[in-house]
Amino acid sequence: MTATTSQLASLNQWIEEVARLTRPDRIHWCDGGDAENQALIARMLEDGTLLRLNQETHPNSYLHRSHPDDVARVEHLTFVCTAKRDDAGPNNHWMEPAIAREQMRGLFEGCMRGRTMYVVPYCMGPIDSPLSRCGVEITDSPYVVANMRIMTRMGEAALKRIEREGGFVKGLHSIGELNPDRRFIMHFPEELEIQSFGSGYGGNALLGKKCHALRIASHQARGEGWLAEHMLILGIENPRGEKHYIAAAFPSACGKTNLAMLIPPRGYVRDGWKITTIGDDICWMRPGPDGRLYAINPEAGFFGVAPGTSEKSNPNALASLQKNAIFTNVAVTDDNQPWWEGLDKRAPATDWKGNAFDPASGNPAAHPNSRFTVSARQCPSWSPMAEDPRGVPISAIVFGGRRASLVPLVFEARDWTHGVLIGAAMGSETTAAATGAVGVMRRDPMAMKPFCGYNFADYFNHWLSFDKAGANLPKVFHVNWFRKGESGDFLWPGFGDNMRVLEWMLKRVEGKAGSIETPIGHLPKIEDVNLDGVELTPEAREKLFDYDREGWAHELASIGEYLDEYGARMPEALRDEQRRTATALG
Ligand code: GTP
Ligand code: SPV
Ligand code: MN
């Protein structure tokens, strides 16, 4: 039964061990090639896992309808299992490793009977980059294999690197019976191991993504002096041809994909400004020889939110989706094209569950967390620098959340420590990317609340540690595209117009714009932000560009309480910074 094809004894051994436990009918080692992919797709079309979309408008594109109870990440079932509870921190659910392993053993026992076990070797990052890291995911889901092939460098080349290096992250996944009561996503960062059972959904099942590239990698990065972050990476080129790279952390479904693929307003394009895309979700960065932070996108594809994606909001994403895409839980039109809320004015025929769509029901046709999976190379703004093994130097780090009130459009940190406080204090209203209530304000430091594989107090300390002799660190900013006015409408047009804010940041990076110094940081002078062609109401001008001292005094008190939840482990430097800011606000 076991067709062992690896040169690495430890890998073969693990595969055999897992096969003895899970009892698959067959084992398939994935080479990542076209023939393999076509065969997988053919099988999935046969058994209904995939449905063929209109092949004239969307060649080689397919629809997957998940189990209706399996549509988002499940944070309450996601655990970080470190030997000591405190090492996982109050920011994670924790289970004792031995107990977690025992529990997972019970679930995995015999779970692949009648199924094929796929062995998926993958590389996170350019295959020849020293910043990249490899893993092997074992899964019984061909849908996961097809997605991993798009999202990572999967197959033969990755296996060769793994055999050369000898080490890799072990990920074991089974869709189980998709029973929400038998579903767990367990991480063992100290053993570089992931075990996920009972879900086929993105962040729960494509183990290279959040499980490896964030939870395991953040833990590993702390030990090795680098950072694994929930950030997009974009390139910005000015009319003189000078290039900068910006990394931005926004919580799930808060605008990373959109900002990464931004098309600047017409005047900017005319003047020769250009935005290029390196990554839309995850960023690994470490100091280079010149003291700057160099970043790679560990992923090779986009697993993006469909609703709201349109020719107007994100034309680059739409162009990427013309072919070779997998759509999950979107609706379809009567001629079998993928459709979601906000795409266009057509009426969908069938909803995400496969039922005839009834507009009178009041329910959306596409699931609010419906997604597309597509190769990054198909994006018109994709930058070949995404393949550079050295990574790209980061000039600015941006934090941002979904905040209907209080938080202005943009402000800049005084220095690195203040920047770390701004990141640590990030708050955002929850979205459909995770199960649970939507629209509830919660602290989501650095957009890593669901993804940091260790104690946040230690994580902030790690961030602070980058400020040392020889460092040449990026400037740190905070943005809020989601401020609302009295009427409940967004005050800022957002999307392409966010370019105006990026331009102000670059001016600050290059020392070409002044600012207004306030206790919360440097606010732009409104005349330094190019607002040509933007209509802002007086309410918008005030709320986007000013700050409410009293409201911020409350906010800082609440941030102080939040930091205190981590007790003595919270770095004193961060508590000091919070106290300084609170005092300045009076
Ligand atoms: P994950 O893939 O979950 O990590 O999400 P993300 O951070 O990549 O978010 P994405 O870019 O997919 O945007 C999520 C939602 O926010 C979509 O419905 C967008 O239309 C909306 N959005 C993105 N940018 C803006 C903006 O500048 N303004 C407003 N109002 N909405 C935005
Ligand atoms: C997110 O939720 O932040 C995503 C989608 O990017 S998932 O892959 O499920 O994490
Ligand atoms: Mn994300």
TrEMBL record:
Its cofactor is Mn(2+). InterPro entries: PEP_carboxykin_GTP_CS, PEP_carboxykinase_C, PEP_carboxykinase_GTP, PEP_carboxykinase_GTP_C, PEP_carboxykinase_GTP_N, PEP_carboxykinase_N. Its EC number is 4.1.1.32. It comes from the Bacteria. Substrate binds at residues 73, 201-203, 252, 369-371. Residues 226-581 form the Phosphoenolpyruvate carboxykinase C-terminal P-loop domain. SUPFAM superfamilies: PEP carboxykinase N-terminal domain, PEP carboxykinase-like. GO terms for biological process: cellular response to glucose stimulus; gluconeogenesis; glycerol biosynthetic process from pyruvate; oxaloacetate metabolic process; propionate catabolic process; response to lipid; response to starvation. GTP binds at residues 253-258, 371, 402, 495-498. The keyword Signal does not apply. It catalyses: oxaloacetate + GTP = phosphoenolpyruvate + GDP + CO2. Residues 13-222 form the Phosphoenolpyruvate carboxykinase GTP-utilising N-terminal domain. Its main location: cytoplasm. Keywords: Cytoplasm, Decarboxylase, Gluconeogenesis, GTP-binding, Kinase, Lyase, Manganese, Metal-binding, Nucleotide-binding, Pyruvate, Transferase. It is found in: Cytoplasm. Pathway: Carbohydrate biosynthesis; gluconeogenesis. One of its GO terms (molecular function) is kinase activity. Pfam families: PEPCK_GTP (PF00821), PEPCK_N (PF17297). Mn(2+) binds at residues 210, 230, 281. Binds 1 Mn(2+) ion per subunit. HAMAP family: PEPCK_GTP. Belongs to the phosphoenolpyruvate carboxykinase [GTP] family. Catalyzes the conversion of oxaloacetate (OAA) to phosphoenolpyruvate (PEP), the rate-limiting step in the metabolic pathway that produces glucose from lactate and other precursors derived from the citric acid cycle. Monomer. This is Phosphoenolpyruvate carboxykinase [GTP]. It comes from Solilutibacter pythonis.
